[in-house]
Amino acid sequence: MIPAGALSAEQLRLVDAWWRAANYLSVGQIFLFDNPLLKRPLAAGDVKRMLLGHWGTTPGQNFIYAHLNRAIVKHDLDMIFISGPGHGGPAVVANTYLEGSYTEVYPDITQDEAGLRKLFLQFSFPGGIPSHASPECPGSIHEGGELGYSLSHAFGAAFDNPGLIVACVVGDGEAETGPLATAWHSNKFLDARTDGAVLPILHLNGYKIANPTLLARISREELEQLLRGYGWTPYFVAGHDPVLMHEAMAAALDAALAQIAEFQRAARQAGGTLRPRWPMIVLDSPKGWTGPRSVDGKQVEDTFRAHQVPLHPVAYPGHLKLLENWLRSYRPGELFDAQGRLHADIANLAPRGARRMGANPHANGGVLLRDLRMPDIRDFAFDLTTHGATGPGDTRILGPFLREVLALNEKSRNFRVFGPDETLSNGLGALFETTARQWQGEIRPGDEFLAPTGRVLDSMLSEHQCEGWLEGYLLTGRHGLFNCYEAFIHIVDSMFNQHAKWLKVSAQLPWRRKVASLNYLLASHVWRQDHNGFSHQDPGFIDHVVNKKAEIVRVYLPPDANCLLSVMDHCLRSRHYVNLVIAGKHPAPQWLSMSAAREHCAAGIGVWRWASNDQGVEPDVVMACCGDVPTLETLAAVVILRTHLPALRVRVVNVVDLMKLQAPSAHPHGLTDREFDALFTTDRPVIFAFHGYPALIHRLTYRRTNHQNFHVRGYQEEGTITTPFDMTVLNELDRFHLVESALARLTGTGEPEQRLMATMREKLVDHARYIRQFGEDLPEIRNWQWDLPRASGGPTSRTRS
Length: 801
Ligand SMILES: Cc1ncc(C[n+]2csc(CCOP(=O)(O)OP(=O)(O)O)c2C)c(N)n1
What we know:
By secondary structure, the chain is an alpha/beta fold. It has 25 helices and 22 strands. The protein has a 6-stranded parallel beta sheet with strand order 12-9-13-14-16-15, with helices on both faces. Helix 1 crosses helix 2, helix 13 (about 395-410) packs parallel to helix 17 and helix 17 crosses helix 18 (about 595-605). The longest helix has 27 residues, at about 240-270. It binds thiamine diphosphate (TPP). Thiamine diphosphate binds next to loops.
């Protein structure tokens, strides 16, 4: 049990005064257009005409913030606040205003009557601030509009921040979401020696928008068992009487913080290895606490009706008096002086300087961000002896490079690799030569690469946690990479959306510093799901990503390992983007030397002259490709075309940076029309082999001069367990279909072209027959080599580029 008497009478008075002040400012933000100190009776004109916001969660969060302030001062804590039910924006704005951090960031919102008026007016008002805890709010790394990610963000912030405590309010409705329900398990990954702590505060206010919450309608015993089962030690603070609740909360908080300190001491000084059963708090308080008890005969406080705006004075004039009574119930005259300044004794409850949660640098991670120490990619290059030489798998060449990034930054502990149990499968096994998977669960003989501390977090099968942890890690000023199967990255579509929105908005706030980019490495991609089949085939994340603001998103499809190294080197140095990188892990042909790869990746797109024979003339056809498998099939098609039709002028264009295709007005990477036309011509057929869904290429190029001659092949939602080459055949992306496609668009075709067309038909029949008989691809496919007949007029393949 928690000892009583944690607060002196004076402390209790001050905590309660702070809470009342924050509640007053919250109600003011939701309702008031003018008359911020109620110096005159509230009039209809003092109330905003459009009332938007969420009251229900707000008083509980104000209560928590007030108590955390007391604890920060008492224990000199380095703490940040995450508002899971971030729709309670008035709470975080009110508290940061009271502690002064808000005014430091927005000097216009002064700590006086004029500032109060602006503070109230701007909330949920055109030209003002959103109703949620948003990037605009100092101290926040979490928007909370889309519920479910608070605890994952909290853990991401705590990793490698041994001095930090992340207080994380979790809504009881939010706790019903899939991501949050699994996030409780994050405690199995936190190393008490080298990481900080997370203090979850489950806000059991009983209701969502219109329903009770599940956790509030099971017995206390069942809830306690659930939380203990997740490995937590819950402290319950339950009731509604403010005085009793202040006492209980202060005692619970002190007990929880003491336990955190003891766990950390045991691990750091005594070398304890037991996984701590970290403390958490369950705050069981009424929804809409201290708000109107009932309105128009219906109970509001402690019901779902308290969720949003409980009064509507414009529509119901009788509500005006209720609002005034509500505001006056906080006794603003005792809290603010005549100029609208918070009384000094109450203001003193706030911590000082960067200890204030609104001014904590961890919540403006760019301030703390340091460049990574980067190895030289040339030391990891694939040594290209001939175009088309077989490499071991592109991510397998990237692995040692990433291993070195981890090693070089081991001391600064600011780079981690995340993945849902797939790091080995994605070809990044080299990482485990120098680090381990961080894991606080039991380790048994026979387990691989598990250790209490390590730079890789990939032992939880939860894409949500990987994404949430990484976001929290990045937003607090560190670097990272998320490796994932291509098809299943869709699981975090929505989380990506929210992060991209965060980046867009925060980039426009001068006081927020840029953070490191969120880097996705999608290996195990659509074209090579040989043993998984249709369920694992989906390249649609690219389409999803390009919907977001062009300043934020970048999409790279390196055709080989040296290009992958060059792209990843660039991504890890970049800031404030989402970089999507798609690469293969299976043995595959290599095309470019390191120096050629760097040049190609710097340009993002280019003609591969060594594969083309249009030197000095306009080509008859442009064979374009984007992605490793489409590049292979395109080059194989080029060999066929140039072998059988030596007079045909073929140009090969490879795209690494997908956004080069878009107009510069649409994306900062976009080629000018002149550059685009120089590559793709203004009137020749372009056979474009694409990694993803074909429609995307049309979408990106529809304004280009030659768009009508673009014929795109890509994934057509055809797939199963079959041979690698058959996957391309099923989707008509294979070399034979590409040749057919080119032939169909050539002008002035004659007998050689018709013969070749027939040959392609036969090849496809042979292929189908062979794989059904032998269960593998034709020898000419398996053993294919890039090799052009000298007579075809181009440079031979046996030269380095
Ligand atoms: C993923 C998601 N689904 C639905 C919503 C819509 N929504 C906003 S608030 C809310 C209820 C939240 O309840 P809870 O987490 O308990 O917060 P509180 O009661 O403190 O407001 C819902 C369903 C949302 N914001 N996010």
